[in-house]
Write a structure and sequence with these properties.
Layout: E1 3-6, E2 23-24, E3 38-39, E4 46-47, E5 65-70, H1 72-76, H2 78-87, E6 91-96, H3 114-120, H4 122-126, E7 130-134, H5 143-156, E8 162-165, H6 176-193, E9 196-198, H7 200-204, H8 238-253, H9 277-287, H10 292-305, H11 339-347, H12 356-368, H13 377-383, H14 389-401, H15 405-429, E10 482-489, E11 493-502, E12 507-517, E13 527-534, E14 543-548, E15 550-551, E16 561-562, E17 567-571, E18 581-586, H16 606-617, E19 625-626
Parallel strand pairs: 5-6, 5-7, 7-8, 8-9, 10-19
Antiparallel strand pairs: 1-6, 2-9, 3-4, 10-11, 11-17, 11-18, 12-13, 12-16, 13-14, 14-18, 15-17
Helix pairs in contact: 2-8, 3-5, 5-6, 9-10, 9-12, 10-14, 10-15, 11-12, 13-14, 14-15
Length: 641
């Protein structure tokens, strides 16, 4: 599916890791004939005959737009790319399709080639102050096709600098000739077509040669995935996504966005007091001028959000010192987690982002209005009017946390209860407006060496039990569909037929997306997707989607409760919509994408197989067509059927 992602809709990641910027000017491009120039791993020098320096380009003009045309790599990193350029006050327009090339369409039903995209994106290209092309990992780059692409870009924008990103593959011989051909074409045309090469290859393997691959290329930083069948060593890991975004930003803007906030070894400037993280947080707000009612209301929310005020908590799914690009993280579940870094940058906070005192300071800066575009001063104003702890808890939830409405309704009593328990614990130790003890947190003191994060004790939610039986919790959702036949298993399960589709079991509607797939993206009409969350049985908490050739009954909206007798969609099989439906597991952290989207290779996935097994256990058609290889890996504890 094609996605053009705009800064207006996604405001996230700044820089997490320091990444050297490798850019090759048009005057210093590789000599293909004699293989004379290559990097030696030093950011500022290379060796060999005619050695040159690879340097950053000049800074992009303030508030300039950046246009990016890319394949799966850019799509994976789109959120982070937008975030790092946003930190430099630039808007980014990304047109990225999985496995797109200049001459071939991407996968997932798209009908647009890279050259087509350049035509369709003409207004965006005309308005761009810089243009980046990241194509070649999946073929299509030759001197001729690159020359044609540059000419097309120059016809619309004759003055903006153009950057072309080279590519790399590690430990995957099948892709070696494709990558080498792409890089040779990219470097050979840099001079004649007057663009700058940005070396993702050298970022991954500083000692290798982008135009003469040997099969011995290395990835010592862990920037590339190595467990996806058919794509070993091409797609970026979470760390690689961050590095890739930093590389583009550093090259195009001049590299000013390179402060390693999460990896710096710095002492905490705030010494926290209290016998638990919750009481330490309470005392922090008391010491910074908040009343006992306000402090209890704030921290009651934190207890609920992060399972005990845990600064490393990932949205009910483990812990991490590094803010994730998707989903919530930290004591208030900054969403996405990388939002914490943006707040830290705006507030000039440089202590380790994963430490409790740092995150408390970030929340304080937001409430005090010193966090740039992430201020929350209204929450502080409203808190001052709270007459009691339940009021303060509710105000902070609504003004600051702003959870999804159904979660707010179901969690407010728990948040208030946590706040009242905290207040009782404080009162049992001392007055409600004073620290309850002088026990210092285990975070680093100013004189200590930074060797570990401050607090590491965590609790995490229990995942769905493995190998559990659906028993009576779920019912066949396609029991009344006529002519039901299976198609293939991919990200989910493809089916064809006519009739009502029920929810599997008890749950609630998460969201409805009208126009989820359009004719431009290969669908017959503007086709919808409906998503619901199960609240019973072995898959309690997991989300399900039904999409494509469906109509959605009126009366359904986010938050609507459903059960196994609720019709959530009507399937159709007609000339107006003949591609059937798809149903499977939804990714709650990357709506409206499936759990398999990031590892889908136009073949079967483990998530699709798992959902097919569930449907089969309930009496739906036999296994669908299973095209190998089966990609993706089910998370630990995922229910099986």
């Amino acid at each position: 599916m094609k996605h053009i992602l705009y800064l207006l809709f996604s405001l996230t990641l700044a820089v997490v890791f320091y990444v050297p910027t490798y850019a090759l000017s048009a005057q210093n491009w590789f000599s293909i004939e004699n293989n004379s120039i290559y990097y030696d791993g030093n950011q500022s020098a290379c060796s060999g005959q005619g050695s040159t320096q690879f340097t950053n380009t000049s800074s992009l003009a303030p508030n300039a737009n950046v246009y990016i045309l890319g394949d799966t790599i850019s799509e994976y990193a789109s959120t982070e790319i937008i975030g790092v350029f946003r930190a430099q006050h630039h808007q980014v327009n990304i047109d990225a399709q999985p496995e797109l090339t200049l001459t071939n369409t991407g996968i997932g039903g798209t009908t647009t080639t890279g050259m087509d995209a350049l035509t369709l994106d003409k207004p965006t290209i005309q308005a761009a102050g810089a243009i980046i092309v990241e194509l070649g990992s999946f073929g299509g780059d030759t001197p001729q096709t690159i020359d044609a692409a540059i000419k097309a870009i120059r016809a619309d924008n004759p003055s903006a600098p153009i950057y072309w990103v080279d590519t790399i593959v590690v430990n995957n011989p099948l892709y070696l000739p494709i990558i080498q051909q792409a890089n040779q074409a990219i470097y050979s045309q840099a001079g004649p077509d007057n663009y700058t090469v940005v070396s993702w290859f050298k970022t991954v393997d500083p000692s290798g040669n982008p135009t003469q691959l040997t099969g011995q290329e290395t990835d010592s930083n862990g920037y590339l995935l190595t467990d996806l069948a058919g794509q070993n060593g091409i797609l970026p890991t979470t760390k690689g996504i961050q590095a890739f975004a930093n590389l583009l930003d550093g090259t195009v803007t001049g590299g000013s966005n390179t402060t390693p906030l999460t990896t710096s070894c710095c002492p905490e400037t705030t010494v926290l007091t209290g016998s638990s993280r919750a009481i330490q947080a309470y005392n922090f707000f008391i010491q910074n001028g908040f009343t006992s009612i306000e402090a209890a209301g704030i921290v009651g929310n934190m207890i609920y959000e992060s399972e005990g005020v845990n600064p490393e908590q990932i949205e009910s799914d483990g812990t991490s010192q590094t803010p994730p690009a998707y989903g919530g993280w930290g004591i208030v579940q900054f969403t996405p987690g990388t939002k914490a870094i943006l707040i830290a940058q705006a507030a000039n906070v440089t202590t380790p982002i994963y430490e409790l005192s740092t995150q408390l300071q970030l929340v304080l800066d937001q409430l005090n209005g010193t966090a740039g575009n992430e201020n929350e001063t209204q929450a502080k104003t409203d808190l001052q009017a709270a007459a009691n702890i339940p009021d303060a808890t509710t105000i902070f939830m609504n003004d600051y946390e702003n959870p999804y409405a159904p979660d707010a309704a179901s969690s407010i009593s728990t948040r208030i209860g946590d706040a009242l328990k905290l207040a009782a614990a404080v009162q049992s130790g001392s007055s409600g407006s004073q620290p309850v003890s002088q026990t210092t947190s285990t975070a680093s003191s100013p004189s200590s060496q930074c060797s570990s994060p401050g607090s590491t004790t965590t609790t995490s939610s229990t995942p769905p039990p493995a190998n559990s039986s659906p028993t009576s919790a779920y019912v066949n959702p396609f029991r009344d569909v006529s002519g039901l036949t299976n198609s293939r298993i991919d990200q989910g399960v493809d089916l064809v037929g006519n009739g009502p589709v029920y929810a599997l079991g008890s749950g609630k509607i998460v969201n409805i997306y009208q126009g989820w797939c359009t004719p431009k993206e290969g669908c017959d009409y503007s086709e919808p997707l409906i998503a619901y969350q199960l609240t019973t049985g072995p898959a309690n908490g997991l989300e399900v989607y039904v999409a494509e050739c469906i109509t959605i009954p009126t009366g359904l909206s986010p938050g609507t409760p459903v059960d196994s007798n609720t019709v959530i969609a009507d399937m159709m099989n007609s000339p107006q919509c003949s591609n059937g439906i798809e149903t499977g597991w939804l990714n709650p952290n990357a709506l409206p994408m499936s759990m398999a989207y990031a590892c889908f290779k136009n073949s079967a996935t483990a998530f699709g197989v798992n959902f097919s097994q569930l449907l089969q256990s309930l009496g739906s058609p036999e296994y669908g067509v299973l095209d190998p290889p089966v990609t993706c890996v089910l998370p630990a504890g995922w229910p099986t059927w």
